[in-house]
Amino acid sequence: MKFKTRVPCRKPSVSDNDDKNFTATKITPTPSSPSPPHESSLLQTHSSLQTLPSVPSLQSLLLDDVDDLTLTRTLSSSFSLSSSITSLSISPSTSSSTSSSLLYASAGHQINVYDCATLTLVDTFNGDSPSSGAVKSIAFCNGKVLTAHQDGKIRVWKLTEKLLETKTSEQKHKQVATLPTLSDRLMHYPIPKNHVQVRRHKTRLWLHHNDAVSSLAVTPTAIYSASWDKTLKIWGPLDLKCKSSVTASQDAVNAVTVSADGVVYTASAEGLINVWNNINNHNDIKKMSGGLSLIATLEKHKSAVNALALNKDETVLFSGACDRSILVWERVDGGKYMSVSGALRGHGGAILSLVNIGDFLVSGSADRTVRIWRRGGGKFKCLAVLTGHKKAVKCLAGKMVEGGNGIVLFSGGLDGEIRVWNVVRLIDVSGD
């Protein structure tokens, strides 16, 4: 698949006059000046920027476009952990029962697991490994849990069937691998060309991430990891070997997401979104060698891009950045082009997290609020603003409720609080 972009190039810039600061993604230090070890677990702050005047706003949806939709939202629960919530993720259901889903929440290096239905704590793991640093992302692959860490490693955990059935804390997650695996390292180590320079007087195997792993994305044929070391790596989901590594940006890569047809999107601290395609057969897990080709660069944000999300049919890409805007990118002309169709505005701080749940886009911001958006009549409208967090909303997770008439939404903040929202869609028939 080939993409062309119809947006003009714009070099990212940072305003020094804006007095609103937020906790944002790290700008990778240059090789000649590595960050001290004690700074590696800190999130760097930058000034958030004004929204983009050159991009038309999309949330001017006429009321008659959504006169059949009303949302009621209630805060059903909230609980606090010992440190900032850095990642939330819901495991795939293993049965038709909604209680089979598990919520994974990371606070620092520790990961807590809750039953989504009862919010009962069923497990805590990685609590005795503070050297791994904060957990940046959590994903699921072939019945295993993948966690991305500040120390540049990806850890693989096995979830036993007994835990899934009993939801008790007696059975713990068991670590079964660390990426890159020992066998993978030993296989590549003897070959000189597999060693790359990472600092002035230091080399390392190209298999390793050399800074925090910021984001994970999983497909049936590949595991993608994005890092503050500016690279994107591809891992085999079965053998867990590193298949490929590309320099995905001139600055830290903050997010990665993948569509079902194998198109990969990466967002970076330099304000760019790169679009990649597997040059191999991404539908055949045995033939997939992990080669990537850059097919487009989307240049419209004025500052670091922190979050990406695809709509449910994967024809629309949403990107959230430090410029306080969510840009909407659409495939046009039969998928040959990516075109920015507008911006969603309203947040007063940097966009730090995005998640698409059914027909709804949910955004979390440094302004401490969560917004719920929905498309109708070709435009978007903000249907709800959820408040209550005392600090920036760093991560989101959610799922449709049974029957499809609402969502359960989890929001995690740098205040250490997880808030649980029930958002119900009501059909208004008063006008009939």
UniProtKB/TrEMBL annotation:
Pfam families: WD40. WD repeats lie at residues 206-235, 298-330, 344-373, 386-423. InterPro entries: JINGUBANG-like (IPR045182), WD40/YVTN_repeat-like_dom_sf (IPR015943), WD40_PAC1 (IPR020472), WD40_repeat_CS (IPR019775), WD40_repeat_dom_sf (IPR036322), WD40_rpt (IPR001680). Keywords: Repeat, WD repeat. It comes from the Eukaryota. Residues 38-47 have a biased composition (Low complexity). Residues 1-47 are annotated as: Disordered. SUPFAM superfamilies: WD40 repeat-like (SSF50978). The keyword Repeat applies. Signal peptide: none annotated. Transmembrane segments: none annotated. Gene3D superfamilies: YVTN repeat-like/Quinoprotein amine dehydrogenase. This is Uncharacterized protein. It comes from Saponaria officinalis (Common soapwort). The lineage of its organism: Eukaryota, Viridiplantae, Streptophyta, Embryophyta, Tracheophyta.
